[in-house]
Design brief:
Layout lengths: L11 H42 L4 H8 L18 E5 L5 E6 L13 H4 L7 E4 L6 E8 L5 E7 L1 H36 L1 H14 L15 H56 L6 H32 L7 E4 H15 L5 E5 L16 E4 L1 H18 L6 E9 L13 E2 L9 E9 L6 H6 L9 H6 L6 H11 L3 E5 L7 E7 L10
Parallel strand pairs: 7-9
Antiparallel strand pairs: 1-2, 1-5, 3-4, 4-5, 6-8, 9-11, 10-12, 11-13, 12-13
């Protein structure tokens, strides 16, 4: 019949309590066993020492050899303590003569010395003649071939060891019971950080995503686990927030795109319905309607083109990689702006704080690796933005230069500076194209949203000029695709400064490093 197995505790607390109790029980058993063996060995050594120190008197050997023998010597005073002495003749046969009290059964000794198998100086244990007692016997040779067997009872040894066994058993039972009670408390106290973690994890699961594990002491295993889990939760929460923000931006993007497309579509639809109405219209009315239909269709086409370009830039397109002369590129953009936007004077000058800005006012060639068409699109977009959002007659400054990334030249974060791309390391060699105006600038609230899609600081004015609010978002995406960034110093009241920052294609000098 197969006995059913006792199920092991499933909880960590139960396993720890069981393990601690078993280990402690084994340790107590081992200590008790060692103590028992040491005590019994010590008591046996005491008995053996008494046997070795006792020597029968010579007359007793003579009395044992007398013909017919003598009756056993009895009486409490015949031998000290509980000693018994038995004799064997020279032929090895047991004699009737013995010494010691016969008030209780003595050791069970054979009739011949050969059967006893005793060696001189080596005591042995033999059973009592009756009952459950034991005796310790030692062979002592005597004169004329007579041998004496000295015996001592082991009642004291057996009694002491028996009491020790009972005490050990009682102590073991008390120890196990106390261990079970104490181990529960100690394990519960030791696992208290895990219990707190469990409660915190339950709260997080219930929806409190901002809750964190309380135990983060790096000196403990649980604390290090708490640190790792808190870091993981922070990253998960950041990922969830980023995903939510991305979804919100996508919904807002779709809503803004629909809103932007609705205006020209509504205009086209209205003029189309007007054209289908019966009745004569003058040639001037037809020309005006056709002009507005074409204008709104062009505006819608530009918006669709911008949306397609943004979708392409979001997929990380492959740009051309060649050395681009940013000075020539900026000069071409300035010439185009002067030709088509004469209401805003535009000048080209070296970058303040960069190479060429040391007072000589000489423009040097500045090169960067990238796509010349896309980089020119950024500069033209910045010039168009300055033209649209500043009053007529506002002067626009285009500055080109090269230097080391820092708060003055650009490329790093600075108070009030806005960008959607991470900054360069300070001291990195960079190429900069800066477009600054002397207009009213932007407020801090406007600057925070200037690179968002469909955002307009002046919605009515930008719509009048056909803007969609996607130009700066496209420019920022192109700059990021070239390993650079587009940044803004809003300068409220003093004019806004947009800055295209790209890694320089020229290696840094040893002094710059």
């Amino acid at each position: 019949m197969k006995l059913p197995r006792t199920p092991a505790p499933r909880s960590l607390r139960g396993r720890l309590v069981l393990g601690v109790t078993v280990l402690a029980t084994v340790a107590v058993l081992a200590a008790e066993l060692v103590g028992f063996l040491v005590l019994r060995s010590w008591l046996m050594d005491r008995v053996d020492q008494q046997l070795a120190e006792f020597e029968p008197r010579p007359p007793s050997f003579r009395d044992a050899r007398r013909p017919g023998g003598l009756p056993p010597v009895e009486g409490p005073g015949s031998l000290p303590s509980d000693f018994r002495v038995y004799f064997y003749d020279a032929a090895g046969n047991r004699l009737e003569y013995s010494l010691g009290s016969n008030d209780r059964p003595g050791p069970r000794l054979p009739d011949t010395l050969e059967d006893l198998q005793l060696t001189e100086g080596h005591p042995q244990t033999v059973d009592a003649a009756s009952g459950d007692g034991n005796w310790r016997v030692l062979l002592r040779p005597g004169p004329q071939g007579v041998n004496a067997v000295v015996a001592l009872p082991l009642d004291t040894v057996d009694g002491a060891t028996s009491k020790v066994l009972w005490i050990d058993a009682l102590l073991l039972a008390v120890t196990v019971a106390a261990l079970l009670a104490l181990a529960r408390g100690v394990v519960r106290l030791g696992l208290l950080p895990l219990t707190r973690m469990e409660r915190a994890a339950g709260s997080i699961t219930a929806g409190r995503l901002d809750r964190r594990l309380p135990d983060t002491d790096p000196r403990t295993e649980i604390g290090r686990l708490g640190l790792v889990l808190n870091t993981m939760l922070d990253r998960l929460q950041a990922a969830l927030k980023e995903r939510q923000a991305s979804e919100d931006r996508m919904r807002q993007f779709v809503a803004d795109a629909g809103h932007e497309l609705r205006t020209p579509l509504t205009a086209i639809q209205g003029f189309a319905q007007l054209a289908l109405r019966p009745g004569a219209r003058s040639a001037q009315e037809r020309r005006e309607a056709d002009r507005l239909v074409a204008q709104n269709a062009e505006r819608m086409g530009l918006l669709v083109d911008d949306l397609q370009l943004l979708a392409t830039l979001d997929r990380r397109p492959a740009y051309q990689r060649e050395n681009v002369d940013l000075l020539s590129l900026a000069a071409d953009a300035v010439s185009t702006a002067v030709m088509h936007r004469g209401s805003h004077p535009v000048d080209l000058e070296p970058l303040d704080g960069g190479e060429g800005g040391d007072g000589s006012r000489e423009l040097d060639v500045v090169e960067a690796l990238g796509d010349p068409h896309r980089l020119r699109q950024i500069v033209e977009n910045l010039l168009a933005n300055a033209h649209v959002h500043t009053p007529a007659g506002t002067r626009v400054h285009v500055r080109v230069g090269e230097g080391l990334a820092g708060p003055g030249v650009g490329g790093t974060d600075a108070p009030g500076r806005v960008s959607t791309t991470r900054p360069f390391l300070p001291g990195t060699r960079i190429a900069v194209v800066e477009v600054a105006d002397d207009g009213p600038g932007l407020t801090a609230g406007e600057a925070e949203h200037v690179f968002e899609r469909f955002y307009r600081a002046d919605p009515s004015r930008s719509r009048a000029h056909g803007g969609s609010g996607l130009g700066l978002a496209i420019a920022a995406a192109i700059a990021e695709g070239h390993g650079g960034r587009l940044e803004l110093d809003p300068g409220p009241g003093t004019g806004a400064t947009f800055r295209l920052v790209l890694p320089s294609s020229r290696k840094a000098s040893p002094a710059a490093g």
